[in-house]
Amino acid sequence: MKHSPGFLKIVDKVKPFIKEITPEEVMIKFNHNDNFHFIDVREDSEWEKAHAVNAVHLSKGIIERDIETLVPNHDDCIVLYCGGGYRSALAAYNLQEMGYNNVLSMKGGYRAWSEKLLPETIGSENQ
Description:
The protein is an alpha/beta fold. Helix content is 40%, strand content 18%. Strands 1-6-5-2-4 form a five-stranded parallel β-sheet. Strands 3-7 form a two-stranded antiparallel sheet. Helix 5 links the parallel strand 5 (78-81) and strand 6 (103-106).
């Protein structure tokens, strides 16, 4: 997908202030039974087509409104992903601004997850 220059400008502005994690590092966290929240910030229609196994859905449009209900502890580890890593970067930055201390954006997003043939759920089955 080709993104607009204005969108890329704000993503480039926040990226130095967030931490990223690769899909492989996310799988390592799962394999070590690390306790973290794996959140898909894509739109409902994207989530319903397919999503990473063990993820929960909280779209970018509502994450700031609803995150404190899902993750009340601001010290919990949160890993966010979107389609390509841009929206999740913006969401990670916003959660940090809200006081969350351990937020990561998955580099490459769902596209990278899927390309690496990591576990996914096809359809709208909710994990």
